[in-house]
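User: Predict the full complex structure for these chains.
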Amino acid sequence: MTKILGISGSLRRDSYNTRLLEAAVQLLPEGVELELFDGLKEIPPYDEDDDVDPAPDHVARLRETIAGADAVFIATPEYNSSIPGQLKNALDWASRPLMTNSMRFKPVAVAGASTGAFGAVWSQGELRKVLAAMGARVVEAEVAVGHAPARFDGDGQLVDDDIREQLAELIQVLLAAVAERREAPTQPVAA
Amino acid sequence: MTNTETLTGASVGTWALDAVHSNVGFEVKYLVGNFRGQFRDIDGQLVVNDDGRAALEGSARVASVDVKDEMLAGHLQSPDFFDAERFPEITFRSGGIDVASGEIRAQGEITIKGVTKAVEISGTITPPSPDAYGKQRIGAVLSATVDRTDFGVNWNAPLPGGDQALGDEVTINAELFFTRSD
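Assistant: Here is the predicted structure of the two-chain assembly.
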């Protein structure tokens, strides 16, 4: 079984980005599961004084959940042209310690939905930069869902075939990166 | 026998890299100066043929990249730069090195991040010389220049003035000690 961890950068109950990840679940091939991370809101603000071993409970859970996944799929909104603070905060926790962090070399897909026209493309760009700095293997494909209210129906179902197709392709690229990592295992890289 | 022939005869054979004393590093323009790093885990050998021409092979473990900051070393190992997990080694090979001339000017092949490109190396090489422990040694100082973007090492950061933070041209410098291994 291949495990993808889905992280929505939006905490809102009816978040379009959460819906996008839920739509992705329906497109998964056999043998692949996508679990949505539900602990983003509980992550405390990053404070180096608190960054000790053992880590704070919610941080430990985040790190363990990432470590247990074969890949991560992050869907992010865009706040003030950038990444939502709570998502960035969680990634800052996840990135520590840098040389052994659970995101290192992990295949990661990025997508984004926004109510505006551009589908959180700036936020996605910044998210890619942050993930790359953490050492993640950010896959090239992207999905930008602009005008999000028009792409989902009243039940939160994705109703746009083009987006569905792009989403399926993104999942395919992500799974290819997972397969490549499995097929060509190399020695663990550490300091 | 001429002096050149004597030198060639003494050097014929296989020479192993003395990795402790050798150094393989890189230099690249960053902001206002040159930034340098090195690889701690290196290997190589020099094989000198009867005709005095030598072949050089070497490798460096990407995970052993050594810079003065651990965070930076981690970033250099990541897919943004060398991608140590997928491409754990940088390798180099070259033939046609004329040991007796003392000068190196040869074509080689370097593989970085899974991409192999021709590269020109230049430098100097010493004749065999006895060390204090009864071994013969050869020393070589080499350099080569590559465009990192040819190998998919593309990271950069825009500067306020419109330039990029990191240069594309990278000089690879190697100071190599060899001891006779056959």
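Residues 40 and 90 of chain A are 7 Å apart (CA to CA).
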